Amino acid sequence: MQTNLLIIYSSVDGQTLKICNALTKQLEEHQQPVDLFSIDTFQGDLSAYSKIVIGSSIRYGVHNKKIIEFIKSHKEELESKTSVFFSVNLVARKPEKSAPETNTYVVKFFKTIDWKPTLVEVFAGKIDYKKYSFFDRIMIQLIMWMTHGPTNRDAEIEYTKWDRVHAFGEKLRTL
């Protein structure tokens, strides 16, 4: 019987990978085998996995194009298994936007993709202006200004609620 769990992720600045690493560690502590791959390096066979988790960050309002292409090209296989999606974005820093049903990016994503995962979650990301290129910093500052977020160019704020990540890991264990 299939027992492995696959996590495929896309991470621009590393927060989605950090969340994936925390989930992997949590699941492996409960003897659940996990294979973790970036969307850029995964070339495996989905048939080897009973659960498939896809995590993607947002940059400029959209999820990674490779993640979208992957889901579209593997839709039938994803829907024949336990499949899970989570989004990491800064809009989720606001409590009223921290659920899949209320997060603008997640709602928009599922309106444009014909896939019904078993479970969907959203996590707030991290802002770290010092890490960004000049262009990214200016654009993200503008977005933050428009959404009443931090614009100080030295700001480094992790919005991820790690208790929610842990609770999500527990759900993954029992799916």
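the 2nd protein, sequnce then structure:
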Amino acid sequence: MARPAKSIGVISKNLTKEEIKSREESEEKLKGKKDKLKPLRHLNKRQKQIFKFIIENLEESKILGNLDTFVLNQTAISIERLETLEKQANEDPDLLLTGAFKSARDMYSKDFFRCCNELCLSPQSRAKLSIANINKPPEKKKLDEILGDDDD
């Protein structure tokens, strides 16, 4: 099974400058704007807090766009549900032995890990992001920027 494609911002393999530029432009167009990154109305208070926490902490990476809203919502839901299940298990350890509890926990865990992969939330993904950011060549200044914009 092939591995899922990663954003150009997290790829650490060697690509030509043209390939990198082409992928960056394409991804930027496909990502769309990021002016509507808001939790859906049906999320509860805790889920909305998680949604906003993720956005705040991924803001610097500049990988999020409006199309990520649905993945962010699903991530917030799965995290909140896992928190709820763990809280219930702490209050009643016998729940850990029930099939329904195990099934629900397994389902939300799978959702969570899939969402982490999609949003680059794992330590491995963050390491790849940092490597990609370090290995980026510095942007060249345009002649206009070097000479300044003096009309004197």
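The chain has a mean pLDDT of 81. Residues 43-134 form one domain.
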